[in-house]
Amino acid sequence: MLLMFVNSLLFLYLFLPVTLFIVYISPPQLKNIFLLIASLIFYAWGGVSYLLVLIISTILNWLTGLFLDRAKTYSVRKAWLIAGILLNVLPLLLFKYTGFFKDNLNVLISIFGMRPLIIREIVLPLGISFYTFKAITYLVSVYRKEIPVQRNYADLALYISFFPSVLAGPIDRYSNFLPQLHNRKPSAEQIASGIRRFSIGLGKKVLIANSIAVVTDSLFTVPVSRLSTPLAWLAIISYSLQIYYDFSGYTDMAIGVGKMFGFELMENFNFPYISKSIKEFWKRWHISLSTWLRDYLFLPIAYSTSRKLKKETYLSVRVDQIIYMIATSITFLICGFWHGAAWNFIVWGLFHGILLILEQIGLGKWLKKSYLPVRHVYTLFFLMISWVFFRTTSLPDAFKYTGILFGIGGTPANWPAALEYFNTGFIFTMIIAILGATKIFAIAVEGLKKRISNKPIVKQVTAMNLYEISSILLVIVILTISSFFMVAGTNNAFIYFKF
Amino acid sequence: MRLFILNFKMKRVHFIYSIIMIVLFFIMISFVMINDLFHFSSPPQVLIMEKRNLSKKPIFNIKNLDSYPAAYTRFYDDRFPFRTKLIEYYSLEVCMEFFHRSPYPEKVTLGKDGWMFHAIERPFYDGTLPLNDEQVSLIVAEIHKRAVYYHDKGIRFYLAIPPMKTDIYPEYLPGNYYKVKTITATEKIIEIVSRDSLIKFIDLKSALIKAKKYGPLFYKTDNHWNTRGGYYAYHAILDRMKQDFSALQPLDTSDFKMNIQEIKGKNLTELIHLKDYFKDEEPTPNLKVERAKPGKIKGYKPRPDFPYPLEFEIVREVEDTSLPKILIVRDSFFYGLMPYIIENFKKTIIFYDSRVYGIFDDAVQIEKPDLVLYMIFEPRLPNLIGIDLD
């Protein structure tokens, strides 16, 4: 399968200019139709057959929304909502989790000497985890009467399949998208800001994430038992940066393209690695998913649990903490499972859940009183441990790998072999990546702006000119170098596309 | 008032630059379409070592939609302006100069001191080649089948397996290269065939390891041995054959003078599109007496997809009736020892049949060789059962 990634030559030099041109010159009433057609073509590029799944999903959600809206009583509305959620979740279960359930069931039935189940491997339709969540958002919003039902099929289909975000988010809310559907007039400043954002995202992915990926991938192909502690650390530090630049780069591109068409998509990242706790991390990492999970899982679970628990304490534990524990555990179990149909993803989710619970019941208070670097080290340390479970391909490997990080198992440290990875290019990329993951560049720009604001108007305008010129030059340089990498490079897939 | 003027001026500046950015961006992303109209770049082409043709524009067929996007993407990528130049520049400046890494690690591994290794050989070296015991047995059975065929015709059957550069020069491998399994699939095959009484197995690996002291036996930038390595392999082969054919006398190092000349990078540099940027050395043996002359070829036809039809059949003859006649089925490794081996036989009939290593029944019936030599490069052994790892 050859996708039309947003960082592919075909997208950048054919699909994007042609789509922008057609949408810009088309009359207002046709703009959304052309965008929908472009989105379907974009999606079809990753598998024409799976376009059918997407189209059927949009039709069923549109119809469910209409029925839900027409229902007179609360119970019928609820029934339609449940039916709608099932219509979305069942295909996801079928396509994404059949293999997982089959494999685990086979392990179980083999104990009883029964024949294993044989089910043909099912290919996961692209972006199904993302567009399913978008569709559920729509249905829940209609159910809660937060928004009017969408009677125009094309508008709903565009929301679900909008090409910049259909493959890996952001999981934009329908309530955010709806007002922009018919009332958007992209200004020159918005388009230019989209271009800037897209270029930065492209650079993050092609120049930083892909360059780091060469080292990460080469280290993760080493059998776990052959790894040494320094190499294991190098691999997981590199991967932590790779996944951030890969995913946030994609998000920047999606948001940037959205802006070019006059849409303001939801933000997804806010310097997650400067977090001082895991709780803060989830406010800064994959924000569209974490807020989705909060609104559609955590809060409903917490609410329904609170109605069932009558006492103020259970076994000396306050009821609000019990509610938090239950809701967090379930939410992060599902969060892990959403990322991948494998035990290591489940453990990854639960690991985060446990850390959040610990922070809630006391660790958080201790952290707040701690020296700032301790809080950063704590957060980064546990994040990196959690990425081990995210990156390795099996649970036993993940545990072995974690052991090696602490010097248990693996091979003795081979420093010359480890140092071979530290060439000029890798060191340079890592330095840029580490600095870019902090707010240092943003703070520098803000500081500069502040200093200039006290200067005479002429100087301020000159500074503004310089800023704008460098901004244009940066875009040109990033686009040129990235295109050059894209022509020759081979490592182009986004990590989050497989989810 | 000051603030108002400032805001107005700033907004105007921002607007103007936004327009400039939009215009420039559109020009940039329309560059390929503009090039299609005015043809600034040379016609599209693929690099020689990509070993493929330029992708053709796929025909849109409603009945076969699934394959269209991938085919069109390939077609589009192949036609990107200045593609070949960009790839060369990327390989040299970005990968080699800046990152000090192979531009295509899946093709070429960069070792120490400028030594390069063919990446497809890695699973053979480290033992991770996914050949199961059944496949190993099938490969052994294929070799045995050939041995039985020649034995039944009264022909002696020799098997020589040129070793990989990784096995002879592991000291130049990068630090992250190591053996995963203690015994590899090919070592298992060699172990079994060397016990087969119908197969006269010649251990080239040991011979070459012993000969390392005489100078580099492999090119730095090629996965093949050079004619120095070829000579010591030849010597090992002749030493073994001499046990059955006493007339065979291998050439001594005093029988030729090895001339060394500097050349451009070899096949591994081609794989990373950097042939012109690397140098290597080519040892060429100048024989004091050259007895072998080209013989008449019979015109056997290679299979239709064979890429080197002119080299498929080679015949050399020496006017010495005391010498035996040999038929050789070989792959590209044979070039390293060809200058020597053709001097030792009355008639040498050579078939270049990498990937199949067929039996050549017709040639055997007509030529009636006294001995047959199969030279199968280690990573080509799975080809005997139809597994091609290229």
Give a verbal description of the structure.
The complex is a heterodimer of chains A (499) and B (390). Chain A is an all-alpha fold and 499 residues long. Chain A is built from 19 helices and 2 strands. Chain A has a two-stranded antiparallel sheet with strand order 1-2. In chain A, a hairpin with a 2-residue loop joins strand 1 (313-314) and strand 2. In chain A, helix 1 runs antiparallel to helix 2 (28-44) and helix 2 packs across helix 6 (153-161). The longest helix of chain A is centred in the first third of the chain and has 38 residues, at 74-111. Chain A starts with 8 loop residues before the first helix and ends in an 11-residue tail after the last helix. By secondary structure, chain B is α/β, with parallel strands linked by helices. In chain B, helix 6 runs parallel beside helix 8 (185-193) and helix 9 crosses helix 10. A 7-stranded mixed beta sheet of chain B has the order 4-3-11-9-10-8-7, with helices on both faces. In chain B, strands 1-2 form a two-stranded antiparallel sheet. The model of chain B has no long low-confidence stretch (mean pLDDT 90). The interface between A and B is large, with 61 and 54 residues.
Secondary-structure map:
The complex is a heterodimer of chains A (499) and B (390).
Chain A: H1 9-25, H2 28-44, H3 48-70, H4 74-111, H5 128-143, H6 153-161, H7 174-182, H8 188-220, H9 229-260, H10 278-284, H11 287-308, E1 313-314, E2 317-318, H12 319-339, H13 343-369, H14 372-391, H15 395-405, H16 415-419, H17 424-437, H18 440-453, H19 457-488
Antiparallel strand pairs in A: 1-2
Helix pairs in contact in A: 1-2, 2-6, 3-4, 3-5, 3-6, 4-5, 8-9, 8-17, 8-19, 9-14, 9-17, 11-12, 12-13, 13-14, 14-15
Chain B: H1 2-29, H2 31-38, H3 68-78, H4 83-98, E1 108-110, E2 116-118, H5 122-126, H6 133-152, E3 156-160, H7 165-168, H8 185-193, E4 200-202, H9 204-211, H10 227-242, E5 256-264, H11 267-271, E6 279-287, E7 293-294, E8 313-317, E9 325-330, H12 338-341, E10 347-352, H13 361-367, E11 371-375
Parallel strand pairs in B: 3-4, 3-11, 9-10, 9-11
Antiparallel strand pairs in B: 1-2, 5-6, 7-8, 8-10
Helix pairs in contact in B: 6-8, 9-10
